[in-house]
Specification:
Blueprint: H1 2-88
Region (Disordered): 1-89
Biased composition (Acidic residues): 22-37, 44-89
Length: 89
Amino acid sequence: MGSYFSQIVEEMEQQEQQVVEEVVEEVMEEEKEVEEVEEKKEMEEEEKEEEEKEEEEEKEEEEEEKEEEEKEEEEKEEEEKEEVEEEVK
């Protein structure tokens, strides 16, 4: 009779241990998934920041080119004006 109860207790302990192992495994999988999602989010944020930085650099470059063109245009107009003044004299 005693061995019957000890066998039942042992089976229950084995089942409990199996449930504990399954829960631990599920928790570890969920933590891994959360970590992967966080890593993906981080990567997306880094990509976004990089894109914004590139856009800003392009914008600055365009501004500089525009300013340079305007400056060249002004110099050209100034030269033409001087030439006309020379011709008038």
